[in-house]
Write a structure and sequence with these properties.
Strand order of the largest sheet: 1-2
Order of helices and strands: HHHHHHHEEHHHHHH
Largest sheet: 2 strands, antiparallel
Distance between the termini: 50 Å
Structural class: mainly alpha
Length: 349
């Protein structure tokens, strides 16, 4: 638990301004409106400013996010820090070289506008493939955590008996790559997160210590998983074509299916997080894209995703459009459906 989170959990006891008794978790006094962690907020603000001045943008992002934990979500200060975080992310986030010691909670660069969407998607996909086929240092991060390794072993053990160990190991590896896509995006955005944990029959998840400051940021984090998952799927099919090993084909098919299922726009699935950033007209554009992909591929999983998308089209949506989230979502859905074995899929049976 961070110092800021610990301070919130402990609570100040009584307001220093008016003496009102306060319970744990309070961020402001209900009597006088005083911010209860003002001293800590000033310290964090000074620390973040010093980090920005030193060019340590990644560290500054993490410090500002700590400050958010001490502010009421509806306060002006909270809105101001959110805006500051978004500005720093646009400036490059953790892609700006830090002068201090590298930490486990890096940052991310964000681009805006429909014109940068395709480039950003290709760059991320290229990065995912590079990490899969190159050094892949980040992919080794979770493998240093006992909880991740043990949960992966349990996952493999459950599926080993039913499908054999090569398939079980391959699928858990593809799922791991998907989850590390989320971790990569979180690290680049200055958000602390635990290594992935695996649950047999359900998949895997990443525990967050910080929360996204906006639906747009949440969409970027959510879609990073399928982007990396697409890289894992392409790698599996590519190795299958090169070696003829049928287990690689099976793993690639499972990976494509799992990543496409994650684009279902419901609950906390990656597709749901993407749809949270889309306006109602954009949601119907996504519906049209999914319908077109179904006509082209006849993939039955798209029917399920399409039903979820139609339902979300009638629900409450933000007013501010997110064209990058829409384009990335559509590109992922189309690519994954095209890769799945079907009547018109490129790989066939």
């Amino acid at each position: 638990m961070s110092d800021a989170a610990a301070a919130v959990a402990a609570g100040p006891g009584a307001c220093a301004g008016c003496g009102t008794e306060l319970g744990p978790g309070r961020l402001s006094c209900p009597g006088c409106g005083r911010l209860l962690h003002a001293d800590e907020l000033r310290r964090l603000a000074a620390e973040a400013a010093a980090q920005e001045a030193a060019g340590e943008i990644g560290d500054a992002l993490g410090t500002w996010r700590e400050a958010l934990l001490l502010l009421p979500a509806d306060s002006g200060q909270h809105a101001g820090i959110r805006a500051r975080i978004e500005e720093l992310v646009k400036r490059g986030g953790a892609s700006v070289k830090r002068k201090g010691k590298a930490k486990s909670d890096g940052r991310n660069a964000a681009t805006t506008g429909i014109g940068a969407t395709v480039l950003a998607f290709l760059l991320k996909f290229k990065t995912a493939l590079f990490l899969l086929l190159g050094k892949g240092k980040l992919l080794l991060l979770g493998l240093t955590k006992a909880g991740t390794i043990l949960s992966m072993m349990v996952w493999v053990g459950v599926y080993w008996r039913a499908f054999g160990w090569p398939f079980a190991v391959g699928v858990v590896a593809a799922l791991y790559v998907h989850e590390m896509g989320h971790v990569w995006e979180l690290r680049r955005r200055g958000m602390k997160a635990e290594a992935p944990m695996f649950i047999p029959g359900l998949g895997a998840f990443v525990m967050l210590r910080h929360h996204p400051v906006s639906p747009t940021e949440d969409a970027r984090i959510g879609l990073a998983g399928p982007i990396w998952g697409l890289g894992a799927t392409v790698a599996c099919f590519g190795l299958y074509l090169a070696t003829g090993a049928k287990v690689l084909y099976a793993v690639g098919e499972a990976s494509a299916w799992l990543n496409l299922f994650n684009l279902l726009p419901v609950w906390q699935l990656d597709g749901g997080r993407a749809f949270n950033a889309l306006t109602r007209p954009q949601r119907w554009m996504a519906v049209a894209a999914l319908a077109a992909f179904y006509v082209a591929t006849r993939d039955r999983m798209l029917v399920i995703v399409l039903i979820g998308a139609v339902a979300r089209g009638f629900m409450k949506a933000p007013d501010r459009p997110d064209w990058r989230a829409l384009a990335t979502y559509a590109a992922l859905a189309g690519a994954l459906a095209f890769l799945l074995p079907s009547e018109t899929g490129w790989i066939g049976r």
